[in-house]
Amino acid sequence: MTTSFAPLTVAIGDLVPHPANVRSNSPETYDPENIAHLKASIAVLGLLQPLLVQKLDGKYAVLAGGRRHAALKELIADKATKGFTAKTKIDCRLVPEDCDVTTALSLAENITQAPMNAIDEFEAFARMMEVDGQTPETIAKTFGTTVAAVKGRLRYGLIHPDIRAAARGKVITLDTMKAFAEHPSQEVQREVFEALTKDGGYLQAYTVRQALKSRGVQVSDDIGAFVRADYEARGGAVAADLLEEHSVLEDAALVETILLEKLGAAAEEARMRLGFAWADAMVRYDYATMADYGRVYPGPIEPDEAAQKRIDEITAELEKLQLEMENEGLEDGAYNALYDRVDALEEEARDLQEAYSAEDLARSGVIASWQGGQITLHVGLVRPEDTVKEEGARGSSSNPTGEEAPDAGEITYPASLAEDLKTERAMALGAAMALHPEATLDLTLFKLVSDVLASGMSVTQAIKIDARKEYRSHAKMDEIDETSLEQVAAAHDALDLSWLDDSRAPADQFAAFRALKAGEKAKLVAYATASTTQSCFARDRQRDSLMHDFEIEIMPDIRAHWTPNAALFNRFKKAWLLKILGEDLGLAQEAVTLASSSKKEIVAFCDKLFAEPFATLTDAQRAAVAAWCPPMMQTAGVAFEEAEPAAETPEPDSEVAQAA
């Protein structure tokens, strides 16, 4: 049986919610932000579909159309909207009071309307503009949305009809169809679509975007934004998109020509400023080609009186900035500004204390390339034909072997840095002790009894068994790698501290302690002993054979408890970092590339490299990264007496010493 409902008009103010409305328990459905589009549509187009109402207690209760009712009430409250008051009447359909299917009616109203197909929506927006003469602004007003959102839908509705038909027929996905909007020209879209589908292969959005890149450069791309003004001044064609950032510079060859000109100008400016013999440019730095190039580096020079005065000023300012950066209340923006200032000052100080030799300048040059959205200068390059053939030629600082790591001399560690590295190693050793409770228990008990019963000197001074936790200071404690701290914390969490109860008498605590299992006691002693470990470098067998052999047993590799990070690399000279990359880690090509980068960029590269070794590393490089640490920190590394003098005699002009 078919039920019909009589039409009538009802004042908005006489409408109330119906308890049988299936959305009545979801009040968030009627929140203003959830009905903004509907409100805008009714304001412009009116109420297109009548409400279903039922007479309840002298009012008309809205059984179906609750969101429309909420939108109408919003229009009444909005004083800027004209034509809607509590007395305004709207079309309704009256459900009889004796109807026994009210809930079914409400549910049917809400679920029987199928959601609109996305392509239908895109095409409808396009027809409103092309056929009805609407603008993105008027469409946005009608649907209560932003102009940018409307333009986004319009772009998809204006994709070539053949491509839209393929998406509607499930030949390609909706995402793949959307990818064609990367180029505003329907003709270009069609050509690319036909080229990519001629062999019947599966089409992906990524493939489409890559193919469209060869047909022009978007003005929002870093290169597009960089060359656009010159491109348009030369009459280059621009395919305009509804969204400006998706407009395309269609002449890719002209784009590349302009980019190379700008790169060449930057390289020439650097050549003249630094005194190199030649300058060149390439859009992308060709690592395979550049592997045959050598490189020269500036060497130390004695600064004159004026330069020395400026160096002293820089040193004083760096010390001041270092103190400011230690303020934990600094906002990120303020900290980054200080960091950039420190980096600039360190670079200025290096320039005052380093210079290229006349011989190197006469045969080397600079290449400008486009990297990371900016011009990058690769300085001090030596062409293969200009490379000095005689190995170790006098006065030359280039490396003719193809190993591009800089020759910066031996790395020396300023005293402050050396002391901090000792602290980090002690923390790692303490973690190893806590993770080897049986061995540490034996060591502790042996020291205790031998110090009491044996005659002569103590068997080792490396640990303090006087029930005092060793105080550990560090200039950058909040920035260093926390692996050892986390391991010690985990060891602490595993301790049985049930006996440790201050509310009980010491004798009772001791009785509970004696009742612990041997393994639990070992963990407690190991943790306590680990906490006494003093600042240290790798032990020397001749000076302390006991701890030397013990460390080999429990910590053969410090990297199990410690990882170098930015806190360490920040305190190295730029030349040291390049030397480590090129010589210690076998990343010669990366060292070449990074040589023209700022220290900040090199530090970030090293930090990422050690945090998670790159997938592109060879097995040998990966092993080197996994094992590297300052040699005096590794148990099986440099002997203690070999590292100690370097730590005690820092270079007075070292930028690391200044920063520390």
TrEMBL record:
Sections of the chain in a coiled coil: 304-362
GO cellular component, one term: chromosome
GO biological process, alphabetically ordered: chromosome segregation
InterPro entries named in the record: Chromosome_partition/occlusion, ParB/Sulfiredoxin_sf, ParB_N
Domain ParB-like N-terminal per the UniProt entry, residue ranges: 8-111
Region (Disordered): 388-409, 641-660
Biased composition (Acidic residues): 641-654
Alphabetical UniProt keywords: Coiled coil
Protein name in UniProt: ParB family chromosome partitioning protein
Organism: Yoonia ponticola
